Amino acid sequence: MGRQQWKKIWVGSAGNMVEWFDWFVYASFATYFAGSFFPSGNPTAQLMNTAGIFAVGFFMRPVGGWLLGRVGDRKGRKAALTLTVSLMSASAVLIAIAPTYGVAGYGGAAVLLVARLLQGLSVGGEYAASATYLTEASDADRRGFASSFQYVSMTAGQLLGLGLQIVLQRTMSDDTLHSWGWRIPFIIGALGAAVVFYLRRNMLETEVYAESSEDGVERADDKGTMKALWQHRRQAFLVVALTMGGTVAYYTYTTYLTKYLSNSAGLPKETATLVSFCALFVFMCVQPLAGMLSDRIGRRPLLITFAVGSTFLTVPIMTLLQHAGSFWPALGLSLLALLIITGYTSINACVKAELFPTGIRALGVALPYALGNALFGGTAEYVALWFKNGGTESGYYWYVAGCAAVSLVVYLAMKETRDIDLNRVGAETGPPSAEAGPASPASGPAKTDAPLAS
């Protein structure tokens, strides 16, 4: 690919990296700043209050999906991407400068709450805005490869946050981290968001969106509206179902993995952290390879492979992980699980974008995805701990497998989306063929209708 194509990929996905860096450091540094915003005397209550504010971000994601998805469809992909990174930077700045309980009482907690509301709005819109941009800005035969960088950047953000935490823990005393050192990650996050904002201010609008606006293909009044989304409610439901199994599995083997290895498998925290870091690094590197594969053989084979693997291997993998005992067995099993999940993560962004017409694409991806993610991804850790506290931890393994099984049914029933012409989605061109082969270089991508569940 040329330099301009790589620049589009970088600008389109860089916000995800900063977004997930901020998201991760809030959760991981909560133990250090919880005492700064709530009365002393009960550390558990402090952490619970901080976790409660963290949870608010998940509830705001559907709101952000609706609001910023609407902006992306009505004002353009560039406008939505610029707005998400602005909210992102503002939230990081607020946390970095928030006054402590000793200075402003509960005023500091109020600032923290506002910051999390902004962060939830930003995360809810960033996924869909970047997914839509990466899909539309790519050549038709490279959409899978380009969109795979969404999870590359997301994982890179987590790894950067984890790496910074390790550095600060080794270079600062515990007292310093509790006093003011915890503010450093949020300052870095704000600076990173400012850089991304500058890059996105100079980005070009996608040709697909520009041509749609110029040609008047869709009524301007209907773009990005709930009325228009309702007309594509089957695709919206499909996005929720597509998300269900993938997001539960993703959160299980990423954000929850370190806690599981430490609390259930009995590995030292340092070992559990190293396992997660190494596994996530490999996971990040294989995303583009899977994306390229989907451009050759289609999206459905990868989605079906993920769903079959998660349905039948989750229980054995989680059971073996619980008895791993040391670094190498734990790393091997974690890598196996993440390689299976790659069938979903590497291409889910472009699959969802390929379902909707241009005028409703950003909202169509954003709102259903945010709802599915909040219902299943955001609750994954809580469901896991609920089963553990009830003495039936293995029940959670079956829960993850069951969610994957539901998604498997959807993957088997849906049409292939690889050869969709993004300018023709929703046009009355006849039903697409599930068995459609790859478009030849001479003829270009096949112009087929929007794929629906059979």
Automatic annotation (TrEMBL):
<keyword id="KW-0472">Membrane</keyword>
<feature type="transmembrane region" description="Helical">
    <location>
        <begin position="302"/>
        <end position="321"/>
    </location>
</feature>
<dbReference type="InterPro" id="IPR051084">
    <property type="entry name" value="H+-coupled_symporters"/>
</dbReference>
<feature type="transmembrane region" description="Helical">
    <location>
        <begin position="50"/>
        <end position="68"/>
    </location>
</feature>
<feature type="transmembrane region" description="Helical">
    <location>
        <begin position="327"/>
        <end position="347"/>
    </location>
</feature>
<feature type="transmembrane region" description="Helical">
    <location>
        <begin position="273"/>
        <end position="290"/>
    </location>
</feature>
<dbReference type="InterPro" id="IPR020846">
    <property type="entry name" value="MFS_dom"/>
</dbReference>
<feature type="region of interest" description="Disordered">
    <location>
        <begin position="424"/>
        <end position="454"/>
    </location>
</feature>
<feature type="transmembrane region" description="Helical">
    <location>
        <begin position="236"/>
        <end position="253"/>
    </location>
</feature>
<protein>
    <recommendedName>
        <fullName>Putative proline/betaine transporter</fullName>
    </recommendedName>
</protein>
<keyword id="KW-0813">Transport</keyword>
<dbReference type="InterPro" id="IPR011701">
    <property type="entry name" value="MFS"/>
</dbReference>
<dbReference type="InterPro" id="IPR005829">
    <property type="entry name" value="Sugar_transporter_CS"/>
</dbReference>
<keyword id="KW-0812">Transmembrane</keyword>
<comment type="similarity">
    <text>Belongs to the major facilitator superfamily. Metabolite:H+ Symporter (MHS) family (TC 2.A.1.6) family.</text>
</comment>
<feature type="transmembrane region" description="Helical">
    <location>
        <begin position="20"/>
        <end position="38"/>
    </location>
</feature>
<keyword id="KW-1133">Transmembrane helix</keyword>
<comment type="function">
    <text>May be a proton symporter involved in the uptake of osmolytes such as proline and glycine betaine.</text>
</comment>
<feature type="compositionally biased region" description="Low complexity">
    <location>
        <begin position="430"/>
        <end position="446"/>
    </location>
</feature>
<feature type="transmembrane region" description="Helical">
    <location>
        <begin position="359"/>
        <end position="376"/>
    </location>
</feature>
<dbReference type="GO" id="GO:0005886">
    <property type="term" value="C:plasma membrane"/>
</dbReference>
<feature type="transmembrane region" description="Helical">
    <location>
        <begin position="180"/>
        <end position="199"/>
    </location>
</feature>
<feature type="transmembrane region" description="Helical">
    <location>
        <begin position="396"/>
        <end position="414"/>
    </location>
</feature>
<dbReference type="GO" id="GO:0015293">
    <property type="term" value="F:symporter activity"/>
</dbReference>
<keyword id="KW-0769">Symport</keyword>
<dbReference type="InterPro" id="IPR036259">
    <property type="entry name" value="MFS_trans_sf"/>
</dbReference>
<keyword id="KW-1003">Cell membrane</keyword>
<feature type="domain" description="Major facilitator superfamily (MFS) profile">
    <location>
        <begin position="8"/>
        <end position="418"/>
    </location>
</feature>
<dbReference type="Pfam" id="PF07690">
    <property type="entry name" value="MFS_1"/>
</dbReference>
